[in-house]
Write a structure and sequence with these properties.
The chain is α/β, with parallel strands linked by helices and 101 residues long. The chain is built from 4 helices and 4 strands; from the N terminus they run E-H-E-H-E-H-E-H. 31% of the residues are buried.
């Protein structure tokens, strides 16, 4: 499957324990992954960068962080996720179908 023309937006704050699985599930599926980090002290930004995500600093608060990530996005579609979320089976096909319609 081609990369989805979507930016995955993930607000984080000390999400080092759960973020790697989320990033692994997204890698190779969306055009870009943007982490809006609210000041993590557990290495979350480094983990995100190691997985190829763009990391931007943002004030704490999911809404503020999602807005910052959306403003940095370059893709026409946005996919907002929590740092502990792994998309379910066939999620790429479901999103591709939605975009096509």
């Amino acid at each position: 499957m081609n990369l989805l023309p979507a930016s995955a937006l993930i607000p984080t704050l000390n999400a080092a324990a759960t973020l790697p699985a989320t990033l692994a599930a997204l890698r190779g599926s969306v055009a870009e992954i943007i982490i809006a980090d609210g000041g993590s002290t557990d290495g979350t930004p480094d983990i995100a960068r190691e997985h190829g995500a763009l990391v931007i600093p943002a004030a704490r608060g999911r809404g503020v962080q999602l807005r910052a990530a959306a403003e940095a996005a370059t893709q026409p579609w946005l996919l907002a996720l929590h740092a502990d979320t792994k998309p379910g089976p066939d999620w790429q096909a479901a999103i591709a179908d939605f975009i096509a319609r």
